[in-house]
Amino acid sequence: MANDRLLPAVPGLAGLLPDGGLRRGSTIAVSGGVEGGGGTSLALAVAAGPSGAGSWCAAIGAPPLGLVAASEMGIALERFPLIRAGGRAWVRTVAAALEAFDVIMAWPVRGVSIEEARRLTALGRERGAVLVTCGPGWPERTDLRLEAVRSEWIGLERGHGRLRARRIEVAVGGRGAASVERRTALWLPSPEGRIEAAPETGFIAPAVIDAGLDAAFAGISDDDTVAVTAG
Questions:
Q1: How many Å apart are CA 31 and CA 124, to the nearest integer?
Q2: Between 142 and which of 29, 71, 176, 177 could a Cys-Cys bridge form, CB atoms 3.0 to 4.6 Å apart?
Q3: What are the b/e assignments for 16-44, b being 16+ CB within 10 Å?
Q4: pTM more than 0.90
């Protein structure tokens, strides 16, 4: 019965989660830090396990997403609707999605109250859905918190090259078994294109990428060539 309450996580993320998977009815906060972003990619990685296993997932109020990169992570695009919602309609839209989807990735709009957040959390718990709040703006404490505190790419050297891999340092905290915060590192993706554990120390000549480029790089594949110049 305990396994029935879990949605699978991709192998690289399973070791970060207290139960080894996404607990149905839980609320998870995912955010990016100030050094290189990475929050959007981390949120997609969270949804990749359930999506690849057959679950329906939805993204509500999301920024522009790199759908090619999402697919390469394991997101089944045919079961991944992107839903636009803003203002006061955002809360109603998330509530409706919690009735219909296994995993809801939601980017909170400004002004979500604690009472509204608690109602959505309670609805997700009742329906057995996983609510993943992305970025800032969620006013309530969550069951689990994943923060990409640092993000580094390899492959860009002296202003040119190809993006080969990305190493993200993740801070994990929350309630219960996750109450003691710990940090770990992930390849997102690895040089082989997988999501997996990364060395705790840095790698050869990491390129420091501005956080504002996170969304732009999210859709870049291994075969793309990127030129970077100083301006």
A1: 20
A2: 29
A3: bbbbebbbbbbbbbbbbbebbbbbbbbbb
A4: no
Radius of gyration, alpha carbons of the chain = 17
Burial class (CB in 10 A: 0-12, 13-18, 19+), 177: exposed
The number of residues making up the chain comes to 231
- Average pLDDT of the segment spanning 177-197: 84
Q: What is the pLDDT of residue 34?
A: 59
Sign of CA dihedral 52, 70, 187, 128: negative
Burial class (CB in 10 A: 0-12, 13-18, 19+), 57: buried
Residue 118 has which token pair?
Answer: 């608690």
Give residue 163's pLDDT band: very low, low, confident or very high (50, 70, 90). Answer: confident
What backbone phi and psi angles, to 5 degrees, belong to 40?
A: -65, -45
Which DSSP category does 205 fall into?
A: S
The reply to whether omega before 189 is within 30° of 0 (cis) is: yes
pLDDT at residue 160 in the model: 65
**Amino acid type, 80:** F
Q: Is the pLDDT of residue 88 over 70?
A: yes
Beta strands 182-187 and 160-174, pairing class:
antiparallel
